[in-house]
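Researcher: Please translate sequence to structure tokens.
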Amino acid sequence: MKYLMLVCVDPGFKERDPGAPDVEEWVKDNDAKGIRLLGDRIRPESDATTVRVRGGEVLLTDGPYVETKDLIAGFDVLECADLDEAVAVAAGHPMAWHGVIELRPFWADGADGADD
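Model: Translation complete:
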């Protein structure tokens, strides 16, 4: 099952936990296992553009649309057997130690979400 792993950082973060894993090692290990299919950092929220269409008109807003404490800093696409494996992979990411990791499953092939 594929999962989108959103890597979020607390903007008030000051000091890295000395016991936190190294991100380069996390990437290398999960790439080697074939779990991490894709991932990258993204530009800060100040570079975001929010797009909405209302009444047929395209409306653009600089920055994120909603105020949040945790800001998305990057993402990874994971291929895991189940949620338990995805949680274990996410828990090994350094940002789980001083930020937030959000996991969202992809729809199964052919699923339209009508039942959820």
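Researcher: Any highlights?
Model: The longest strand covers residues 71-79.
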